[in-house]
Design a protein that fits this description.
FAD/NAD(P)-binding domain, six-stranded mixed beta sheet, 24 strands, globular, binds flavin-adenine dinucleotide
Length: 499
């Protein structure tokens, strides 16, 4: 360790682990300080009475071999010996007596949808052609744009050619606007619901294209296995992981970060600090508002109409494996379910029965999501939480209504559903210190400027870099992974070390 530069990493989520691994591999000595008693952050899973429970992951991007993103997952040891499940359908929607499946075979999707609504044929074929053209799109994962030389930039822009130009055009169209162009209510409903509210058509087309080309799939073993493998790899490379170690403050002096202070008062002096936790929390709490984020990141926080945050109330159940829906993800209409002071008439459920590691004693996990968009929903849950009984009562009410809805849609589940627990926006805010209790980072809408390049640097403060899902164009575990890597590339650049 003598002579090695030391880096303190705040947060042991995917981004913190990724940064830790890449930094260890490039000759630094790192320690990750994680506030919770388990690593993983938002990417989490646990076991309940022998049944593995997935807390977040539905699909992982970067699962197609021979792509730069897969290569990154491989470099951090996350997908060693991992098999993938490729569900038949990316998303299945029931509405108006019809079932719309966004299936692996896009021709099957198209011909089925056209049979339901012949007058939507032209639009469906245009959608199909667009998705096929975007297949094979390569997510940039090798070098951050701010470190690319002019030739490298030109090369990077050329890699995706027509697909990139197509996505740039679709970025200006919202998925919900596109949905409204369909004549048939079931198709309108399907295209409106497949992505979170506010998504662009570009996000929808890219996700479906990735699903078809195999670069979006389900890793067997889910979040728990990915994190376990990353942690093992980090420790095997002499990284240091401290759990139950909340950071209270970042030490800053003479325009540079000098280390961190833990909640227990311990001061740790380092050459660099990487904040792999929420950037708003980092600036407001850990830096006590003395430094601001770079302008382009600040702008995202101050323009909620362009950059949406969203969260979810996720209810976890176990159910007999032969009673769960065939589709991995299914959205279906329900009687009105009261949620955050409003009512919703549709549920999204995810079942895990097609992953053999998620089946125990003939049962599997079934999650039901009640979407909670943005700040207002967070304030609703946060206010309730101040009166713990009211908070618990609201969860009980929601759980009862969701269970009834499930039993109505799947009568074979009656009497055999078992409630395992619930996450609300307050859970994400308290557990992860995440902005407005968001479960993922910003969702850029069609009004947001395209791909503002973020660096994670703070004007006026050196030796500190922000990293994590909030710096990417779109949230997700793959973004956290890439941003962790990019952060270490920036440090190597500043330290004049070869990458
Ligand atoms: C319900 C849900 C479903 C999701 N579904 C998917 C999906 O299907 N596919 C996908 O790719 N992504 C999905 N995601 C998103 C994905 O999990 C995240 O984008 C990713 O895990 C974020 O990683 P991160 O490291 O950037 O941030 P985080 O995971 O938030 O990590 C930040 C870490 O910092 C720690 N921390 C915070 N403050 C401190 C402090 N003061 N001191 C020490 N530690 C601190 C936190 O405890 C946390 O561990 C989902 C997320 C949720 C919640």
């Amino acid at each position: 360790m003598s002579g090695q530069k030391r880096i303190a990493i705040i947060g042991g989520g995917v981004a913190g682990l990724s940064a830790g691994i890449y930094a260890q591999l490039h000759g630094f000595h790192t320690a990750i300080y994680e506030k919770n008693d388990v690593p993983g952050g938002a990417c989490t899973g646990w076991t309940s009475d022998g049944l593995p429970v997935e807390g977040s992951l539905r699909f992982l991007a970067g699962t197609a071999e021979d792509t730069p993103l897969y290569h990154c997952w491989d470099e951090v040891g996350a997908l060693r010996d991992t098999l993938f499940v490729n569900p038949d359908s990316f998303y299945t929607v029931e509405d108006s007596g019809e079932t719309i499946e966004f299936c692996q075979d896009i021709d099957r999707f198209c011909s089925h949808a056209e049979k339901i609504s012949p007058e939507d044929g032209t639009l469906l074929h245009r959608f199909r052609d667009t998705v096929l053209k975007v297949q094979g799109y390569v997510l940039p994962a090798e070098k951050p744009a701010d470190l690319l030389g002019p030739l490298e930039s030109r090369h990077a822009n050329a890699v995706n050619g027509e697909a990139a130009r197509m996505l740039a055009r679709l970025h200006n169209v919202s998925a919900s606007y596109f949905a409204e162009q369909f004549h048939h209510p079931a198709l309108r409903c399907a295209f409106r619901n497949i992505m979170p509210p506010g998504s662009t058509l570009a996000q929808l087309v890219l996700c479906y294209a990735q699903f078809i080309d195999g670069s979006l799939a389900v890793p067997v073993g889910g979040s728990q296995k990915i994190i376990r493998q990353m942690v093992d790899f980090y420790l095997a490379n002499d990284g240091e992981l401290q759990l139950n170690a909340p950071v209270k403050e970042i030490i800053a002096a003479n325009s540079a970060a000098r280390g961190i202070i833990l909640e227990n008062g311990e001061r740790i002096l380092t050459h660099w600090v990487i904040a792999a936790c929420d950037p708003e929390y980092t600036c407001r709490v850990l830096l006590q508002d003395r430094y601001s984020m770079e302008k382009k990141l600040q702008m995202r926080f101050s323009a909620p109409e362009k950059y949406r945050t969203c969260s979810v109330v996720r209810l976890f159940f176990s159910a007999p494996v032969d009673s769960v829906p065939l589709a991995r993800t299914l959205s279906f209409p329900t009687d009105v379910i009261p949620a955050a002071g409003e009512g919703i008439g549709r549920l999204r459920v995810v079942q895990y029965g097609d992953d053999p590691l998620f089946v125990h004693n003939g049962r599997t996990e079934l999650t039901a999501d009640v979407p909670m968009p943005g700040r207002r929903a967070f304030q609703y849950w946060d206010k309730l939480f101040a009166h713990r009984e009211a908070y618990e009562a609201e969860i009980d009410r929601l759980e009862g209504a969701v269970q009834l809805a499930l039993e109505k849609r799947f009568p074979e589940m009656k009497g055999s559903l078992q409630y395992l627990g619930c996450h609300t926006p307050v859970t994400y805010a308290q557990r992860l210190n995440s902005y407005h209790g968001s479960c993922t980072a910003f969702l850029p809408t069609s009004h947001a400027p395209r791909s503002a390049m973020l660096t994670g640097r703070l004007p006026g403060l050196e030796k500190l870099l922000l990293t994590g899902q909030w710096l990417g164009e779109i949230a997700g575990m793959h973004t956290a992974l890439i941003q962790g890597k990019f952060t270490v590339e920036r440090i190597c650049h500043d330290e004049r070390l070869l990458w």
